[in-house]
Amino acid sequence: VHEFSRKHKLEWGPDKCKTMEVGSHSENRDMWTLGDKTIKKCESYKYLGEMINRNGKNDENLRMRCDKLKATVRAIITCCKSEVMATIGMKTIIKLHEAETISAFLYNSETWTLNKTEKRLIDQNEIYAWKKMIGLPQTTPTAGIVLTVRCLFATVRIAQKQLLYLHKVLTKPETHWTRVTLLALKAHNIGWAKQIEELLET
Fold this sequence. Notes:
- By secondary structure, this protein is mainly alpha-helical.
- The chain contains nine helices and five strands.
């Protein structure tokens, strides 16, 4: 990394440079040298609005997304209470949900590695959003909501995004870092590569 920075005339800021070993193993070092600077380890960091944790879980990231989803739903409900919006009806709610709620909720989800609990949480929160926007009790059967609004489950849309992203990575040159990273993960049968293998098998 230091040689790369010298070659490209980059200056690293120690405050924003951290190391994070991913996995359940114990970390061997607390500090690393980067040229004449010392950088420390961290348990999590935020990158382009995405919380990345050492344990590989998405709980903190999903909590922030769920809070944002609920705030957007409240805004859509308020917007749709006007007389003009009320006459337009369901089509407008669906378009607002797709444009505002889902785009923010599933942003960057093509790179997520999710367990069963996290997938269930994602679907539950979107169904919650639909019930709130349509004005139905939370006890309304989920199947009825899905058939009425004719939308795919959020986790199905994530799977679609991940398969499209896989195609994008596989069309890169063999030396491109995304393809090299994918093959390294596949060799160890871990992370995103393991999840995408399971998705393809399904």
